[in-house]
Every structure is written in C-alpha cells, then in structure tokens.
Amino acid sequence: MAVRLIKSIPEMQSEAESLRLAGKRIGFVPTMGYLHEGHLSLVRLARERADVVVVSIFVNPTQFGPNEDYDRYPRDLDRDLRLAEEAGADIVFNPSVEDMYPQPYHTYVLVEKLTEPLCGASRPNFFRGVTTVVTKLFHIVKPHFAVFGQKDAQQAIVIQQMVRDLNFDLDIVVAPIVREEDGLALSSRNTYLNPQERQDALVLYRALQKARQLIDGGERSSEVILREMRKIVESVPSSRIDYISIVDAETLQDLRELRGDVLIALAVWIGQTRLIDNMILRGLR
Ligand code: PAF
C-alpha cells in the first residue's frame, strides 16, 4: 500500500484517534529525514510490532544551536517517502515549522541532570529541543510505542526518563546501531564528509573497538581505557575531540572503574562535522 503523506497536525491527530478507536496499534519512528539504513531499521522494527507505522520527518529548529547546521541539514522528502514506504511505513507525518512552533511559542520540556553531561555539555539547548518536539509529536501521533536508535544513546536515555517522569502512556523501544561495513555508524551527517574525512571518521569506531578489546582483556580502569581511545582518535589530524566518556548507563555519571551497565560514548569533530558513536556493556564485574 502506498505511504500516506500527512502535513496537517489536526489531520494527523484525528487519524491517530480513529486508528486507536479501531483498536489499531500505532508504532512511531520520529526522524529528521534524509533517511538512511539506520532509520529504516527502526521502521522495519516498528513494522514487526505495529498495525500502523507512522514516521515523522521534521528538521526540528529548537534542537540546533545558533551556529549549528540547521540550514544545511540535508532534506529530500521525495526520496524519504519512497524509502519509508519500502521499509513498511504507512504514514509519513511532515509538519511545517510554522505549524509546530506557532508564534508566540513559549513552552518547553526539560529533563534535568541527564541532559547536562556528554552532548548536553557542548550543545546546551539540544535536549530541551529534542524533548519538546518529541513530546509534541507524541501528543500528535498518539503512538502505543516509539522507536529510537541507540546511536543517540543519551537521547534514548533522556526520552525514557521523560516518559517515566511525565507518565506518557507508551513504550520506548531502543534499536541497535547500524554500521557501514567498515564500522562507521550511519548518520545523516556522514554526507558532509569528503573522502579523506570519511576515512578519518573510522577513528570513532576504532576507539570503541580498542576499548572493547581492553575490557575483554580484563581492564576496568576508565583512565587507562580513555587514554588509549584518545590516542587513536588523535592519530588523525582532521579530528578534534568534543568528549570521550565512560559513564554509568543509567545515571550518565562518570565512572572511575567499569562496573555494572556502562556506556562508552564519544563525540568527535572530523573537519567541520561532529560525529557521535557509543557502545553499551551490561553487567560488567
Ligand atoms: O534523533 C533524531 O533524529 C531527533 O533528535 C528526533 C528524535 C527526531 C527529534 O527531532
């Protein structure tokens, strides 16, 4: 069946209401478009568990800082519609900025604490923008569950906290990172990389692999692991580290020793492009 494009918020809301009344289970995949295999894996996962799959495509201005890439963020709705349909989406919801943020606009959702470290430290309003738009999208799409990628690990943790704290009546599903064959995590921002930078970008994955190798060998000191990861990233001249951190996977607080559920996350500039990647290790002793 051809994917249906809905642009109007009231139309999406009444469609969601009718679907719920008809007893249909709505699965939701929020995206900013320019879909790649990572997004499509989320759509396929939603397809397996839902009667109706809604994908939103909305480049959300409130989660970009003033000097970030909002204007040049890649956009291609026709391509996205085709890819979303092939992956099994029933509805693509693509509202306008004017409809999502009618002026004057004054209301934001903020998750405290968890949004301070890691990406929150260098992108101060990022999570406020994400939690605000995701709240709005949840109210509009009324999903029974929503799927987020582990690639944005902190985002998934923040949204799970928000859903618990604000009693949203839906489940959050977190899907594994999808990588290129050589290990680069898929991201719409990879399109910014020139061929040399594309090669250099592999340092993120190589640093994570080094960490895993050390941990498999019994190393539990964050200091030692972080030092080795930094060495790998700094070995390419185009790189600039934003952060490399080893934190508790629930509280996001720094860990000196790796124990329990551990998130190893990094954000690195490759030339003008900021890339993130991570790995979660559970039950370390
Ligand atoms: O992960 C993203 O693409 C965005 O942060 C999201 C969740 C669609 C909100 O704009």
How would you summarize this macromolecular structure in one to three sentences?
The chain is of the alpha/beta class. 38% of the residues lie in helices and 21% in strands. The chain folds into two domains: 4-175, Rossmann fold, CATH 3.40.50.620; 188-284, Pantoate--beta-alanine Ligase, Chain: A,domain 2 (2-Layer Sandwich).
Our Rg estimate from Cα atoms comes to 19 Å
Strand neighbour order, sheet with most strands: 1-4-3-2-5-6
CATH homology superfamily of the largest domain: HUPs
Query: What class would the helix/strand composition place it in?
Result: alpha/beta
Profile the largest sheet. 6 strands, parallel
Number of helices: 10
CATH topology of the largest domain: Rossmann fold
Task: List SSEs in N-to-C order.
Answer: EHEHEHEHHHEHEHHHEEE
The poorly predicted ranges are none
The total strand number stands at 9
Bound molecules: pantoate
Shape: globular
How many domain units? 2
Q: How does CATH name the architecture of the largest domain?
A: 3-Layer(aba) Sandwich
Task: Tell me the span between the first and last alpha carbons.
Answer: 50 Å
Q: Beta-strand percentage? A: 15-25%
What is the name of the CATH class of the largest domain? Alpha Beta
What percent of residues adopt helix (DSSP H or I)?
A: 25-40%
Mean pLDDT: 98
